[in-house]
Amino acid sequence: MDYLQLRVLPLLALLASLIYFFYFQDSPTLFERSDCSLFPYNHYWIISKRIVTPHGVISGAVEVKEEKIVSIIKEEDWHGNLKKGQIIDYGEAVVMPGLIDVHAHLNDPGRTEWEGFPSGTRAAAAGGITTLIDMPLNNFPSTVSAETLKLKIDAAEKNIYVDVGFWGGLVPENAFDANSLEALLSAGALGLKSFMCPSGINDFPMTNSSHIKEGLSILAKYRRPLLVHAEIPQDSESHLEDGENDPRSYSTYLKTRPPSWEEAAIRELLTVSKDTRIGGPAEGAHLHVVHLSDAGSSLQLLKEAKSNGDSVTVETCPHYLAFSAEEIKDGDTRFKCAPPIRDAANKERLWTALLEGDIDMLSSDHSPSVPDLKLFDEGNFLKAWGGISSLQFVLPVTWSHGRQYGVTLEQLALWWSERPAKLAGQDLKGAIAVGNHADITVWEPNVEFELNNDLPVYLKHPSISAYMGSKLSGKVMSTFVRGNLVYKEGKHAPAACGAPILAT
């Protein structure tokens, strides 16, 4: 018996190895954790007549193996290459790199009644967003140290349906403390964020150009960006004339935050952004102006800074491109945000700047709260909490409003994927390219839908979104994160298997 065992066992082991090699390696294999995906195979092909790649829109197939894209084949070059693996044929639907939203407030930990990682990332997945970079405030405590960053990472564990990275905060208490800032960046913060006006959050006070200069000098060592909310309060009372200050009127709120606030902040920023030029004391750092609203002098200043060699970029948001001040009804505080939504002429100039490349990218600035803070009954724009709730809707909103300007699929991928990936330092994201993470969104550009109670909305408080009640085009069908099909036609994967993204 011992002799037979000695002879047979090695043969059985060899046979098992052959079976594994020929069957499991050459045929689609199940994920070890099939609950991460609604399509539980780790080797498959995605086919479409419209695949958005860095080299244009092609008809063909994307091969996914485990979490990466391993090949991209044009239809005319298939030659039987699709025999192995499962195939998902999306026909005429658009297959595009997953959106990367570099500006979202998920408020976790500490204010999860406002949103939270589970609801926010489910909304992101349903909207074709595969990567979120979470802001360091509105959660509690604010993320301004290595210790508070760890709280956020711990809160995200097993609670995120898409990949999530984290900005740290630049505030007066850490701006001149190099050890504290370096510890925060070494702990994985992808960069820093600061406010040049009161943030509305007590433990996240505003900074000035001196703080920002110090922050840039530290960021230069790590080659990471500083994101800035660029508004400096001016004398807003002078903009309110007697008899024209009804707090229920949006025009009243608009007068309290004129374009001069943005212009003043950007003028001050550009006194230190020159340090980021090649050969400058902060070379390697980068300055990014978030949610630009003013398409006038503020934008012109940024254009001049870029032409002078400053390492500067700027984003705007879909709500500035979709809405105009003239359309906002009295008391509808869903539309309150900072900087404010300005007039229709300004909106047109923002579109022009985006199409001409003067605005680099888009972000949601998803900033929810509990409905009570919006003061719907009172309708007071001056007292209501500001912030547009938008995370699930940004792709169809951008497409619906952009079609009249001739926006292309390649431009959408540039604004929502490629350039945000670069800002966040994510070399393996932002494009459908061999070797990249298989972060992919599939959507139908011509399918119209209404944002009403019949549509599944995954935001914690849909009622506060300014987009509810809109009719949009561009319905997201499927979202893949690192090869996992995390969302498909109203259904999410059973488990939240998104990965925290930490800088190294």
UniProtKB/TrEMBL annotation:
EC nos: 3.5.2.5
Pathway, per record: Nitrogen metabolism; (S)-allantoin degradation; allantoate from (S)-allantoin: step 1/1
Reaction catalysis annotation: (S)-allantoin + H2O = allantoate + H(+)
Keyword annotations from UniProtKB, A to Z: Hydrolase, Membrane, Metal-binding, Transmembrane, Transmembrane helix, Zinc
InterPro entries cross-referenced by the UniProt entry: Allantoinase, ALN_composite, Amidohydro-rel, DHOase/Allantoinase_Hydrolase, Dihydroorotase_CS, Metal-dep_hydrolase_composite, Metal_Hydrolase
Annotated Allantoinase composite domain residues: 39-93
GO CC entries: cytoplasm
Transmembrane segments annotated in the record for this chain: 6-24
GO MF assignments: allantoinase activity; cobalt ion binding; zinc ion binding
Domain Amidohydrolase-related: 94-486
Gene Ontology biological process terms, A to Z: allantoin catabolic process; purine nucleobase catabolic process
Residue spans of biased composition, Basic and acidic residues class: 236-247
Pfam families: ALN_composite, Amidohydro_1
Spans annotated as Disordered: 233-255
UniProt entry tagged with the keyword Transmembrane helix: yes
Enzyme class of the recorded protein, top EC level: hydrolase
Cofactor(s) the protein requires to work: Zn(2+)
PANTHER family per UniProt: ALLANTOINASE
Family membership noted in the UniProt record: Belongs to the metallo-dependent hydrolases superfamily. Allantoinase family.
Subunit and interaction comment: Homotetramer.
Function: Catalyzes the conversion of allantoin (5-ureidohydantoin) to allantoate by hydrolytic cleavage of the five-member hydantoin ring. Catalyzes the first step of the ureide allantoin degradation followed by the sequential activity of AAH, UGLYAH and UAH which allows a complete purine breakdown without the intermediate generation of urea.
Protein name (Swiss-Prot/TrEMBL): allantoinase
